[in-house]
Amino acid sequence: KTRAEWCEREAAWLDDYVLFMALEAAHGLQPWWAWDAPLARRKPAALKAARKAHAEEIAFWQFVQWCFDTQWQALRGYARARGVAIMGDLPIFIAHHSSDCWARPDLYFLDAQFQPTVVAGVPPDFFSASGQRWGNPLYRWDRMAAEDYRWWTDRVKRALSQADVFRIDHFRGFAGYWEVPATSPTAIEGRWLAGPGKALFDAIERELGKLPIVAEDLGVITDDVEALRDGCGFPGM
Known about the structure:
It is a single chain. The protein contains ten helices and seven strands. The chain has helices spanning about 5-10, 10-25, 35-40, 45-55, 55-80, 100-105, 140-145, 150-160, 200-210, 225-230; strands at about 85-90, 120, 130-135, 165-170, 175-180, 190-195, 215. The strands form two sheets. A four-stranded antiparallel sheet has the order 3-2-5-6, with no helix packed on it. The chain is globular, with a radius of gyration of 19 Å.
């Protein structure tokens, strides 16, 4: 495909991403919540003006992504012709400073200044007395469910365009996840909350068909996680 055709096809994620990269450069690599308020808050007039003002930088990032995708698909084709499948990896969480979070802040637990009120992590265990405070924003699963998990379906669809099968990291977080207060310096203070469960994967499969997913189920795994993994028909590790 030409670059223009490819950009049109990938617009659902690409348009936000390339504008995010251009604005990050324009703001001296400051995180998105520190940008000019109309841009941080995605006011339509400000975004429209920014697309015009940073057209050259936006075109550069479109070119970079198009080059990567074109070269990657060529490599995939080469592998496939020789009977070699490619396995990808999909983290469960996204970064706070990312086009994902900036584009849809309503899907995460953020305060009025776009700072996380709670963050991801895992509780204390054999490996760490204070647990692991990862710091990623946590999903508002109720809001994702209200949209029939559209965000996740789009994300998995993109992953499937790049790999033949992929591992989802921290699969247990879909059954239950550890919520850490953002004010806590460690992961000791926290609580288990129910994840979306099988409803998430049912929604994705309704659109994309049977999913070639491997569940990362390492560490201390409980019965509910095994039930979710087996109920989805995913192999574990």
